[in-house]
Amino acid sequence: GQQVMQIPQYQHVQEGEDFTTYCNSSTTLSNIQWYKQRPGGHPVFLIQLVKSGEVKKQKRLTFQFGEAKKNSSLHITATQTTDVGTYFCAGPPNTGFQKLVFGTGTRLLVSP
Amino acid sequence: EAQVTQNPRYLITVTGKKLTVTCSQNMNHEYMSWYRQDPGLGLRQIYYSMNVEVTDKGDVPEGYKVSRKEKRNFPLILESPSPNQTSLYFCASRDRDSPRELFFGEGSRLTVL
User: Fold this and answer.
1) What are B47-70's pLDDT values in tens digits?
2) Closest partner residue to B40 among A9, A33, A41, by Cβ?
3) Which of A98, A73, A54, A27 shows the shortest CA–CA distance to B102?
4) Which terminus of chain B is more exposed, N or C, with fewer CB under 10 A?
5) Residue A94's closest chain B neighbor by CA?
6) Residues of A engaging B, defined by a Cβ cutoff of 8 Å
7) Which of A56-60, B72-76, B91-95 has the lowest mean pLDDT?
């Protein structure tokens, strides 16, 4: 079945440093979504990318969808303590939207 | 306020004692789904439902049952819980035909002794 891996599994940075998490799927995705889960909270939708090679920005966050639609990345510029949490990518296979498969997640810790 | 509500939020139970985790959403969403979250494994789909009386298995359905008798409710049933079902469970919903965001409940932390 479809597998979605994320690296790194965990990263600890100093406030102000940049951070990147990478998402790799074993199969082509029709789109990619990113979610953020604060400690003790539930996943919250951040963004969706649909087109091959698409890049979207939300303030300090930059999201990219690979040309082959099998990988994606999330880059945070100048991290802040409010960025702490686990970031998940998720994507449905080209066969349909009902099985949204989540990545393994990257846990980010930011020290002041 | 648009929300997905799960109950109970926390539960400690013993092996073999049937339990139900309820999930209700007030957004008139057709699609609902259950996930379990375990360290290092991310969120894995247990069951999903495209509409009333329509349910299907996700990636890890063993040991679970679901029902969808009403559009707003999607309970998760553990007929005979076992320790390997100790996990954090999330219910989620979205519009059926919109490949966009899932709205998650607050989560239910289940411990099976």
Assistant:
1) 999 999 999 999 899 999 999 999
2) A9
3) A98
4) N
5) B99
6) 1, 4, 6, 9, 30-31, 33, 35, 41-45, 48, 88, 90, 92, 97-105
7) B91-95
